[in-house]
Design brief:
- With 1393 residues, the chain is of the alpha+beta class.
- Helices cover 38% and strands 23% of the residues.
- The chain has 44 helices and 45 strands.
- Strands 1-2-3-4-7-8-10-11 form an eight-stranded antiparallel β-barrel. Strands 12-13-14-15-16-17-18-19 form an eight-stranded antiparallel beta barrel. It has an eight-stranded mixed sheet with strand order 38-45-44-40-41-42-43-39.
- A hairpin with a 4-residue loop joins β12 (294-301) and β13 (306-312).
- α28 (904-914) crosses α31.
- The termini are far apart.
- Belongs to the PEP-utilizing enzyme family.
- Residues 1314-1385 form the PEP-utilising enzyme mobile domain.
- This is Phosphoenolpyruvate synthase.
- Residues 464-807 form the Pyruvate phosphate dikinase AMP/ATP-binding domain.
Length: 1393
């Protein structure tokens, strides 16, 4: 004991001496480890952003992580900026092997402003734009014509831009910059789970911040919050296209999406106070110390290896290596300090940057300074795209410098309301009127007693009080009356009066009595609408408001002679003229109304809110049936000419082109489409030199009015097209108190032969419109209704933003469900997957594909072990989608286990899955580079995993069979509310998950056992040496299997056919009559009907594309079974006749020994023993695979019924326009609709477009094998017959549609013959045609213009539409198959093939 005490004392003394004498060395050795532990502790303390992680063995579908939880949704949406020192930034960028790239940044600031930056590099050309404006709303990242749209949290975003960009060419000696019109349409998809900047940070690199020579030594660990911003990032792809100079370029880019919440106060602590203050005053970042900047470097090479590095405070803060196998590893060491790398960019890039990850893998990056392509300065953000090499392989890189100080503070430099697209240049010309914030939310409680509001009152900016048209007229009024234009005097009747005089609650109750969204109850809805309109008109509302309106008009007009003034009374619904919906023509307006009749017309405007077409329009756009309405009352303008001017091309969004449509008299003839108007195209300056010259002119103060022409407002006439103008609508004022007269009269020959407005007037209109756009549009183009009075004065009647430019395109609809491709050398196949989903799936079935992929990936990952890429919740890497077709990732599923040479087992797997051999040396080498050569240990582990599956699969199948054999979902206890049913369906998806897991396990057993069977029978031969005898023997061995459900189905169907042939009287009637008559024939025969019921009890859940939620099973839709049944009867009758001549003989073997003796290859004794051992497993595998597939289909069938039930409830609750639309929504979108937490109009419009495009997607055929993104085979060829049946017209809504022509000259005729997808050909359309638009595939009219009713509504629905199709109603006839190519303005008849 004493010896132990002495030894301990000596040891303690030695340790104390070492600690005293070697203090600095010990401190140096321990500090990194301590720092790393502190960092990890800090990281663990950070809040989890994305909800719980997926469970390994989920018991509920929520535990799978495949559905978006509420926390993740809130994290992805814009945050509420309640802290004045916080900004919210979203950045999306990508690059490709052709040196093309995109970077889009949006920063929301607490002062209700948003900064936006867009950069595009394309074919040695650089395009960029920077602008700032008021934040339009609190639920999306958007500003002007830039939108970053959340499609599904962490799974998909949409990048859309349609506007001006500054252009510079790197390949041209001409350095002069120009403005060009650029369109960007891209879909962003993830290729990784999100990296939380703090929770999932890089501990190795962050630890160096705590003990490095330039780091925060001695400071508290919480200072990491100053270094690492709150936020997250995701690696992913950008797939889409650009349009520049009408040239469309498709691009597939790789990059990152980052989200950061920057703290202004934290950053100020790290900067020198003088530098900080100076940077805010000058809006410059070059003088700020490098530690005030954040840096991001991303590079990806042609073989798919990628690197992402971030730095702050002169040190690396995070680093990741992105492997093409989907695996991502942290970087541990970097040989070049971040401060050196970024501070002296040119010199640091001359030597390679070496990176090492935690697994010891080394990456070397070599960048040639001369290869830097371009640098674009956004003041707060600089972006550089460059070429480099990763481990000697060519690569592309993106280098981003950000100054979070300026981002957080807001630069306030770029203001499109003053410069439209400032491009870092400030204007001397600024509007003299004060900018109005239309997003102000005035409290309604203060305005309850306000019945009338004049346009000039600030209260008229309250949208809920005066409606959309009233707000826009109020904004126009604040421009002031100038010498250039004026506005018609007037006021608004508020919604307060609407609510006080009308029984809104009663209207709601009446609508609840009819299924408003049911297609089968359209007549009932129309009856209800008529009833409510009659209630409003027959009431005493007009009498009650008459003295109020009379008094207000007299006080407003004071002593003017009342009998000389008449009015226009226009509807102003709270949903009208918004950013998403125009409601054009849906509600009524009246012209030439005398003062005495104004109250009556106000009531009629209210009643028009409940016309059938107005109610149907709101239902189709996800808006409430019962809404509110203000009414606008304006002084009538006696117009010599009138029309509409668009400040950008309404089809393309091109802001360089203004379009004017005009006619004599009032604009009613143009809006109604009853005339062929004059069309004038104006153009704005494109050369920046012109702009700079104009800005250098010294403008006298007295001329600096709102309409002083800056460079952007300078317009010239480019083209004038003379319209026929056969008629005009005019106003005839009377000399007494009676109502003025609105008449439609015929123009004379001289009027028709001349333009109704001069070039000088057109230029004046363009100048006025440009100023109004800058003031009203918030960076968006507007369409303005104008008139020129008898004195030549321009009068602005109303203005609204152009809607529909951001509608989803055909390209986006076709690719929105596409899985991201990790590398363009990936291999994909449709083999085998075509049995599961043989055609394009409906959008709702994306959740089925998601479940299948997660199960397959989980099984592959489990089989491969820890070193394999983990399963992702946010993207597919095994069972993927392309053009809504299911494809298989061959590398992930087939080639992840390879040897140095092409092995026999690998070829056997190919033979089992693909039915042929396809691998070559190039593919093998790619697989080796990604996954490495399979070692003996990993091979043994995979074999052991497979044996375990062989031993346990029977019990799995038995448990699944017991659960799902008679499976039904009982929703009797679920409240009959759409939200409750949706939540229950979300829970019940776990049944599909478990059934799919069992089916995939059985498929694994069947495939693997057949692999062994091939290996045994080949007796050492390579598959390249196999002949047909081995396939014949395998087929013979596997065909001797009983109790296979897929084989029982045709047997049971034959029994049903026999019953029909034996007991069916006059069954020829069944063969020859219509489907409905055939069903009646079956139901009328007791024995046949009973036989059909027995068959449906066993197999009624089966059908074509049976795993697609959009396809009905046989039992759900017996009519779909009739054609199959008829075909079998006919074939059986033919076969019976043939067998009388030559009967069919089937060979039956007594036992397996006799079966083996009959084999062509004559296996040896060892092979016979091995085959006898594996054969039962092969047979059971086939039986269990087919059984489990049937159980999976039965489970999916139950979900089909519940989704159908949900659709009915959503129709009843007015959330869907019709029940059939539900299969064209994703499960996530349905959740958004039932939760009613966002505007749903865009969701329904996208679903309707999917519904129209689905027949085209069904025809898409992908090649069996694809390298990179699958490219569809040629879909079809559309050929016009001849020039006589090929009409040229004017496009007013772009797109292509193919369908059956329906020539309808009136609404009554259309109601009888219009079917979904038809192409309507008519003379002209007005509001009465509105209910047909959701059904149509396209619209063709002989009359009309860009702002006629048909054109406006077609653009909102995304329908192809052309006008001016001369004699189309005579050239085409109902029933013709036609193609409408609105992009080219062509309507043509299809040749018979």
């Amino acid at each position: 004991m004493l010896d132990l005490i002495i030894f301990s004392a000596v040891l303690a003394a030695i340790i104390l001496t070492i600690l005293t004498t070697r203090k600095n060395e010990i401190h140096r050795l321990l500090k990194p480890w301590i720092s790393k532990l502190l960092v990890k502790k800090w990281m663990d303390s950070q809040q989890q952003k994305f909800g719980k992680k997926a469970a390994r063995h989920p018991k509920t579908f929520t535990e799978t992580g495949l559905l978006c939880d509420k926390q993740t949704l809130l994290t992805e949406r814009p945050i509420a900026l309640v802290n004045t020192m916080i900004s919210d930034e979203l950045l999306i960028y990508g690059t490709d092997e052709s040196e093309n790239g995109i970077c889009v940044q949006m920063i929301r600031n607490v002062n209700n402003t948003t900064n936006a930056n867009v950069l595009l590099t394309l074919q040695q050309n650089v395009y960029h734009a920077s602008f700032e404006g008021d934040t339009p709303n609190a639920y999306e990242f958007s500003l002007g014509n830039l939108k970053l749209e959340l499609v599904e949290p962490l799974r998909a975003w949409r990048v859309w831009y349609n506007g001006l960009m500054k252009h510079r060419s790197n390949s041209s000696s001409d350095s002069q910059e120009k403005l060009v019109h650029v369109v960007l349409n891209f879909l962003w998809k993830p290729l990784s789970n999100p990296f939380d900047n703090r929770k999932d940070g890089n501990a190795d690199l962050l630890a160096k911040q705590l003990f490095g020579k330039n780091s925060l030594v001695g400071k508290d660990i919480t200072n990491l919050s100053e270094i690492v911003p709150e936020g997250y990032a995701q690696f992913g792809t950008l797939h889409g296209y650009t349009i520049i100079h009408e040239v469309k370029t498709e691009m597939y880019l790789y990059g990152f999406r980052t989200r950061e919440m920057n703290s202004f106060e934290d950053l100020r602590k790290l900067c020198n106070a003088d530098e900080f203050s100076a940077s805010l005053k000058t809006n410059e970042i070059d003088g700020v110390d490098i530690k005030a900047k954040r840096f991001e470097f991303f590079s990806i090479c042609d073989n798919g290896v990628g690197v992402r590095l971030t730095a702050f405070n002169g040190e690396w803060t995070a680093g990741w290596i992105l492997w093409p196998s989907y695996k991502i590893t942290e970087i541990k060491n970097i040989n070049i300090p971040a401060a050196e790398f970024f501070k002296d960019l040119a010199s640091s890039l001359q030597k390679p940057m070496n990176l090492q990850d935690r697994n010891g893998e080394l990456i070397s990056i070599q960048i040639n300074p001369t290869s830097i392509k371009t640098s674009s300065d956004y003041k707060s953000t600089e972006v550089t795209f460059l070429r480099n090499k990763i481990n000697g392989t060519p690569a592309n890189a993106v280098l981003i410098f950000k100054s979070p100080i300026l981002q957080t503070h807001g630069t306030n430099v770029y203001n499109l309301s003053e410069s439209h697209c400032s491009m870092n240049v400030q204007h001397k010309y600024q509007p003299s009127f004060k900018k109005v914030d239309g997003s102000i939310n005035y409290p309604r409680s203060k305005n309850e007693n306000c019945y009338f509001v004049q346009f000039c009152e600030p209260l008229c900016l309250n949208l809920p009080l005066v409606g959309g048209k009233g707000v826009l007229l109020a904004k126009l009024e604040t421009c002031g009356h100038t010498q250039k234009f004026k506005t018609a005097r007037g006021f608004c009747v508020s919604t307060t009066l609407f609510n006080e005089l009308l029984d809104v609650e009663r209207f709601c109750s009446i609508f609840k009595s009819v299924s408003c969204n049911s297609n089968s109850d359209e007549q009932g809805l129309e009856v209800v609408c008529i009833e409510i309109m009659e209630i409003i008109k027959s009431g005493d509302a007009a009498r009650k408001i008459s003295p109020l309106i009379d008094s207000y008009i007299e006080s407003m007009l004071e002593k003017e002679k009342m009998y000389n003034i008449t009015f226009a009374v226009r509807s102003s619904g709270v949903l009208e003229d918004g950013t998403e919906l125009s409601c054009a023509g849906q509600n009524q307006s009246f012209l030439g109304v005398s003062k005495e009749l104004v109250p009556l017309k106000v009531v009629e405007c209210w009643a028009s809110l409940f016309t059938f077409q107005s109610v149907r329009y709101r239902l189709n756009h996800g808006q409430p049936v019962v809404s509110e309405m203000g009414v606008v009352i304006q002084e009538m303008v006696d117009a010599a000419a009138a029309g509409v001017i668009f400040t950008a091309d309404p089809l393309t969004g091109n802001p360089f082109q203004m379009l004017i449509t005009a006619n004599y008299g009032l604009g009613e003839s143009i809006v109604s489409g009853s005339c062929d108007p004059d069309t004038i195209t104006l153009t704005r300056h494109q050369n920046l030199a012109t702009r700079q010259n104009e800005e250098n002119v010294n403008i006298p103060n007295q001329l600096s009015s709102p309409l002083t022409r800056p460079w952007w407002n300078a317009v010239t006439v480019e083209k004038r097209v003379l319209g026929e103008k056969r008629t005009k609508t005019v106003f005839r004022q009377k000399e007494n108190k009676d109502e003025g007269s609105i008449m439609k009269i015929t123009t004379n020959d001289e009027e028709s032969a001349n333009f109704c407005v001069s070039e000088e007037t057109a230029v004046r209109l363009g100048t006025v419109a440009a100023e109004i756009e800058m003031y009203m549009g918030q960076h968006k183009p507007v369409d303005i209704e104008w008139a020129v009075d008898q004195l030549g004065q321009i009068v602005i009647l109303q203005c609204r933003k152009v809607t529909g430019l951001d509608a989803w395109t055909d390209f986006e609809i076709q690719h929105e469900l596409d899985s991201p491709i990790r590398n363009k050398m990936d291999r994909f196949t449709t083999a085998n997957s075509g049995e599961v989903l043989p055609k394009a799936i409906h959008t709702l079935s994306e959740i089925i594909a998601r479940i299948l992929d997660h199960n397959v990936s989980s099984q592959v990952c489990k089989k491969k072990g820890r070193g394999f890429a983990p399963v992702s919740l946010y993207f597919a890497n095994s069972c993927m989608l392309s053009h809504q077709r299911l494809i298989l990732n061959m590398f992930h599923l087939l080639y992840s286990t390879v040897d140095k040479q092409i092995s026999t087992p690998l070829l056997c797997v190919e033979q089992s899955v693909l039915g042929r051999l396809v691998i070559d040396e190039e593919t093998l080498q790619i697989a080796i580079d990604r996954y490495g050569v399979t070692t003996a240990a990993s091979g043994l582990m995979e074999f052991a995993s497979q044996i375990k599956i062989f031993m346990t699969y029977k019990s799995i199948v038995e448990n699944t069979s017991n659960t799902y054999n008679k499976f039904t979902l009982d929703y009797s206890n679920v409240p009959k509310m759409a939200k409750d049913v949706y939540d229950k369906i979300s829970e019940d998806l776990i049944h599909i998950y478990h059934a799919a897991n069992t089916h995939l396990t059985c498929t694994n057993v069947s495939t693997s056992s057949q692999l062994f069977l091939f290996l045994f029978l080949s007796e050492g031969k390579k598959p390249t040496e196999w002949d047909n005898s081995i396939y014949e023997d395998v087929s013979k061995l596997l065909s001797a299997v009983n109790n296979v459900e897929s084989a029982q189905l045709p047997e049971n169907m034959n029994q049903l056919v026999d019953e029909i042939l034996r007991n069916g009287e006059n069954f020829e009637l069944f063969l020859q009559s219509s489907i409905d008559k055939a069903l009646e024939w079956i139901q009328g025969n007791e024995k046949v009907s009973k036989a059909l019921d027995i068959f449906f009890e066993k197999h009624g859940h089966r059908g074509f594309a049976e795993m697609d939620l959009g396809e009905s099973s046989w039992q759900m839709n017996p009519a779909s079974f009739i054609p199959t049944l008829r075909n079998i009867i006919k074939n059986k009758m033919t076969r019976n006749e043939q067998e009388k001549i030559q009967p069919t003989v089937k060979t039956v073997f007594k036992n397996d020994v006799e079966l083996l003796d009959s084999l062509v290859m004559k296996p040896n004794s060892i092979t016979r023993r091995l085959v006898k051992w594996i054969l039962p497993l092969c047979r059971n595998g086939i039986i269990c695979r087919e059984k489990s597939k049937s159980l999976l289909v039965r489970t999916i069938g139950q979900l089909k019924l519940k989704y159908s039930y949900l659709a009915e409830l959503m129709v009843k609750e007015m959330l869907l326009p019709n029940s059939s639309l539900i299969v064209h929504l994703t499960h996530f979108e349905i959740g958004q609709l039932v939760n009613r937490d966002v505007s749903t109009s865009h969701i329904l419009q996208k679903a309707m477009k999917r519904q129209k495009m689905y027949p085209l997607l069904e025809t898409v055929k992908l090649p069996e094998l694809s390298v990179g993104m699958p490219v569809p085979e040629e879909i079809d060829t559309w050929v016009p017959i001849d020039d006589k049946e090929n009409v040229q017209a004017t496009p007013v809504s772009l797109g292509v549609a193919r369908g059956i022509a329906k020539v309808c000259l009136n609404v009554e005729e259309a109601a009888e013959i219009i079917q979904p997808g038809d192409i309507l050909i008519t003379h002209a359309t007005d509001i009465a045609w509105s209910p047909f638009f959701p059904l149509l595939g396209g619209v063709v009219t002989e009359l009309g213009g860009l702002i006629s009713h048909g054109a406006v509504v077609a653009r909102e629905y995304g329908l192809p539409c052309v006008v001016g199709a001369v004699n189309a109603t005579k050239i085409f006839k109902t029933g013709d198959e036609v193609i409408l190519d609105a992009s080219k303005g062509i309507l043509a008849k299809i040749c018979d093939k």
